[in-house]
Amino acid sequence: MNRRSQLAKLCMLGALSIFLLSCETVGYYTQAARGQLSIMTGREDIERLLADDSVPAELKEKLELVLAVRQFAESEMQLPVENNYSTFVDVGREHVVWNVFAAPEFSTEAINWCYPIAGCVSYRGYFSESAASNYAQRLTEEGYDVYTGGVDAYSTLGWFDDSLLSTVINRQDYQLAGLIFHELAHQVLYVQGDTTFNESFATAVEREGVRRWLESNGQEEFVATADSALSRQQEFVDLVIAWREKFTELYSKDLDAGEMRNQKQNLQKQMRADYEQVKESWDGYAGYDSWFARSLNNAQLSTVASYNSLVPHFNALLATVEGDMSAFFQKVREIAVLSEEQRAQRLNELCEAC
Predict the structure, then answer these.
(1) pTM for the whole thing?
(2) What is the domain extent for residue 57?
(3) Around Cβ 48, how many Cβ atoms within 10 Å?
């Protein structure tokens, strides 16, 4: 019954496209429906894979971990596990989806696209790298700054049972656990059009889940490792946001296009140099080198925003209920129904020092 229900939802989403005016829109939703269908038809039950002698031991070890994380997520984190992550899909490629981002040549404000379920977001996703590249090329020809990036996992926000994908299977154990906590948090609640609220909430749940998971398994030594990775990530985000403000300041000046482009390139060079200085304290970690090797155009800068800026506020809210996840989720739901301005005010009241 559950499988038939999910297929019915998929058919409904596909049917939506025929009522839309643009042939381009029809094509986009068609590829999205086909991509999701390929995920659903490629599912393999994890329990059956564990009983299959032909499955490599390394894969079985990860699958056993996922089942344990599922149980922990449900019993200790009060997350809506249901049938999520009970299946595995080998997608046969490096990424499951490629997102296309775009922004005007002289603006750091990204273009938004709006969808029936997710609301308005600053990217357009494709299940095919070539399709993403083709669309990116069209936007480039129209004069936009464009950036395309691969995505290894995504949440269907409860519309379908999410599967564990081969694109994430080789992550460290605590990272894989964190991914599951994060994506399941999106199924607890999702506010259309408020990415910062959604991602900050999911990140707060992820970090709390990873901490509890590691401590429950006697792996406190990995808590420091996880904290170090999060610290580097925050330094990266802070760096990009600071430089994005400098680009915004540049674009507010009354300059001709040629001079604006020259100064834009100079800022990009300075930003790379600043990154090299920040990286010196990372004990040889170079995980962001490939990102800084790209153009650093406005679209790329838009992919890094203060999505986690409300994490301390959600942490403060969790503290008010003494770590009770069910009570925490209820309080977050109460805040989520408020207007964006009221949500911000309520969260700021919880964390005046944040």
Answers:
(1) 0.86
(2) 2-188
(3) 11
